[in-house]
Each structure stands twice: as structure tokens, then as C-alpha cells.
Amino acid sequence: MTTVNPVQDRGGSGGAGLLVSILLRFPEVGSVTFDPSGHALCLTLLIHKRISPARYEALRLLILESLAAFAYLQGFQPRMAEVNRTAFRGVTAIEITRDAETLSREEIALLIGLARERFGEELVVDPDTDLPEEDMIVQEQLIDEALDHLREVRQQYNLIAYREGGRVLVFNK
Questions:
Q1: DSSP annotation string for 75-139
Q2: What ranges do the domains of the chain cover?
Q3: Which candidate, 35, 40, 26, 52, places its Cα nearest to that of 115?
Q4: How many Å apart are CA 148 and CA 90, to the nearest integer?
Q5: Which of 58, 62, 99, 156 has its CA 20 to 30 A from that of 52?
Q6: Strand locations in the chain (E)
Q7: What is the pTM of this model?
Q8: Quick one: which H or E segment has residue 79?
């Protein structure tokens, strides 16, 4: 996968680099948005079909309950945890929004695991992202460092990163 980054990461490793690393490490994530006003990250997962309101509600509750249990075990209280969906023709986008202050790479991995378990082959996964184990470890370290940096330094740019044609693109919205 080629990475294209039209945005200069003026905020250090906590901005565009974080979004790119999340997309490289987690091929199930279709896009990542950083909202500086809410100091929040939104991860978008795509499902190959429209899911029913009941199936969405079951997923939403599973995610929120799992996040609450994870937060309890880790000893923190998240400021923001939201799950929303948008249905298109034959595709459902699941948007998970979390405050950047308490979000962790382990929590992202938990969310991806829940989605994989719930949707299996229906979950859209970028086939071009097949990182060797050592590259996955590097991306995980970069995510950890970038999240730490984001907690310390207020990022002022509204960024979005998404996949297109085997590349990761990052833009200032």
C-alpha cells in the first residue's frame, strides 16, 4: 500500500501520522477523522450490505458495553463514546467516535475484533494492506506514541484520512 500525505503534519506525530498509522495497522477501518473542537477521533467501518435497525442496535449496545467494561478494567472514564450508522445503497457505515484523551490502540483492536466477530466476511477489509508482522509492530508503536502526543498537545487541524485505490490519503477538512 502506498501512503500519500498531502497534509503537512504540523502538529507533530499526533496528527496526520496517527490517522495513517491507524489505517495501515487496521485494514478494517475505512476512514479516520480527527475533530479538534471535540478532541475526538471517529473510526468508520464499512459493512458490505445494509444492516437492519435491530442488528445495528445490537451492535451499538455490544460496542458501548464492551467499551464501558474495557474502561472500567483500565481504570478510566471516557468523556465520549458514540456509535452511529449511515446506510447507503448496499453498504452501511458504522462510525465509532471516541475522545482522544482516553482512546488507546488496544481499544481500537477491541472494536475491530468485535466488528470482525459480528460481521465476518460482510466487513469491508482493504485487501492491499497486508503488513508483515514487524511492520505491524512498528505501526502499533507509532499509534501509541501519536496518541500520547495527542493527549499532551492540542491539535488544531480537522483531519480526515481514508483509503482510495490502495493508498491512504490525508486531508485537512
A1: T---S-EEEEEEEETTEEEEEEEEETTT--HHHHHHHHHHHHHHHGGGB---TT----HHHHHHH
A2: 2-172
A3: 26
A4: 38
A5: 99
A6: 2-3, 29-35, 40-47, 81-88, 91-99, 159-164, 167-172
A7: 0.88
A8: none
